[in-house]
Amino acid sequence: MSSTAGTTGTPGADQPTRTASWPVLAWGLWDWGSAAFNAVITTFVFSVYITSDDFGPGASTKLGWALAAAGVLIALLAPITGQRADRTGRRTFWLGANTLLVVLASAGMFFVAPSPDYLWLGLGLLAAGNVFFEFASVNYNAMLASISHPGNVGKVSGLGWGLGYVGGIVLLLVVYFGLISPEVGLFGITGDDAMDVRVSMLVCAGWTLLFSIPVVLTHPDRRDPDAEPAPRVGLAASYRALGATLAGLWRTDRDTVRFLVASAVFRDGLAGVFTFGAVIAASVFGFSDGGVIIFGVAANVVAGAATIASGSLDDRWGPKRVISISLGTIAVSGLLVFALHDGGTTVFWVFGLLLAAFVGPAQSASRTYLARLVPPGREGEVFGLYATTGRAVSFLAPAMFSLSILLGAAVTGSSQDDAEYFGILGVVLVVAVGLAMLLRVRPAPGDAGASSATPLPPEHSPGGLHG
Fold first, then answer.
1. Mean pLDDT of the chain
2. Overall pTM > 0.85
3. How far apart are CA 141 and CA 93, in angstroms?
4. Dist CA 456 CA 467 (whole Å)
């Protein structure tokens, strides 16, 4: 096993024992900074801009194809990139390199002028940014075990995830009220030639770069000068090793495979809550455009605060219990939103914020579940599989949302627009199925009643991850 690998389960000399320490905060600031791409660019600003009328007909469809292609690349390559970072011990290097590529893609969006001639440049940059963001996330998540210990891994994960929620909203408010909303924004920038949006992309690039520096400087790769260099392994050999690892996982620890699949399903449902929440708020509950933004800000603040607070429960109860309670509450809240869809904005404010409060804890605890199981030196590859399984089923929530609307229109005899609230049931169903699959998985070490559960054995790596 490479001496450069992080540790899991037992804090070493380089592992902080306190959650409120600079090494932990430096790690969490990456989540804060990367929200510029994940939330502001992909969700709220650039994706809306690139699908506007300025880019010609069919831009939304082309965006879907571009992101689908990015998803395929992530699914195919994420576990390989994680595996190679494990083998070479250069996890921080690859975190920094992939983050820098995200920064360059974000900055490049400044050159996407509002014209059909620039559509594919914008889509290509957005797709590339998504790929490199996921590659960076694999190495970032894999660092969790080395900057925490079993007594605070939930707090550490929750802190990082919560900072991501809050950081995204802070930056969104900065670019929206400082550049996009005013007729004349900061530094005299206006909407002429979409300069307000384009400059916002430069701000996002700078934000990501600034807040990714601490983790790179604080957690450098530590190489043993006496260790032999890691052997170079070709792409085909990497996939053979990956296949052997999957086969070994299935033979020796099927619960981990089941968790990867279950988490892929419920994580897609959780993504659907935020993806379609704004659509439901506007089309079903009558929120104005400004009201949707205000609710989005409130929902992310609530999600961030709840995620940070849930870390203590994760460490006390274990991640499986936190995930189960969160998913159950989300499912019930979603059903209440559906049943009370005629209740106006107050209903959505109450139960929509309740939904938001439990999405982050479920996502954070899902990450800690794996962190508690993965043996030293295997983090990158297993979190790469975590990314791959998530991408493999990313069609579920959108498909069930649309299918439920079609079925609702058929049952009620109304138009699809009038039956849009039935889409809530589709997202709830995905969450519920993920919960049902999770209940069949053993608790991770640290869960209540998990005394018989043990982390994955290091020797169950038939692929020879370390040569």
1. 80
2. no
3. 14
4. 19
